[in-house]
Amino acid sequence: MAEREERTFIMVKPDGVQRSLVGEIMERFEQRGYKLVGLKMMTAPKELLEMHYHELRERPFFPKLMAYMGSGPVVAMGMDIVAQGRAMLGATDPLKSAPGTIRGDYCQATGRNVCHGSDSKASAAREISLWFKDSELSHYTNEQHTKWVYE
Ligand code: DAT
Ligand code: MG
């Protein structure tokens, strides 16, 4: 199969970093066979977080969300996945997330839900370009993909 077109933005949030879940979360996507195309750790500036979550800026929890997301480093990833990424993440409220999903396995509070994943192809494209420069994204063939992951 040819290179897949999908791209999504996955981010281990500050609580996921603090709770040493970075490797675990990356491993789930890697082991499912998705390809990592970008990776970095950073404490996000307020302006970036405001742009990332601009759709939620009028919501009452927005100030708390900004404080939480800016409270420490996050690990940002580009991956070649969209729809299944949300399925692997679980629901926004971890208590409504099925066991087996990332949120269903590792957290309990909506305001500490350990990981972000883009909710559509359009938001994935927007978020990837917010968090990564073009030069920070790798273009390569995952050799497993061509033979052992996809038919
Ligand atoms: P998701 O992260 O599942 O895409 P979202 O985009 O609706 O959810 O919201 C972004 C984040 O904002 C979410 O992960 C946690 C926080 N959030 C959403 N709804 C909330 C609420 N009702 N109370 C507190 N925090 C909330
Ligand atoms: Mg969202």
TrEMBL record:
Positions of the Nucleoside diphosphate kinase-like domain: 5-139
Residues where ATP binds: 13, 61, 86, 92, 103, 113
Molecular-function annotations in GO: ATP binding; nucleoside diphosphate kinase activity
Catalyses which reaction(s): a 2'-deoxyribonucleoside 5'-diphosphate + ATP = a 2'-deoxyribonucleoside 5'-triphosphate + ADP
Cytoplasm is among the record's keywords: no
Cofactor: Mg(2+)
Primary enzyme class: transferase
Positions of the catalytic residues: 116 (pros-phosphohistidine intermediate)
EC number: 2.7.4.6
Matching SMART domains: NDK
Protein name in the entry: Nucleoside diphosphate kinase
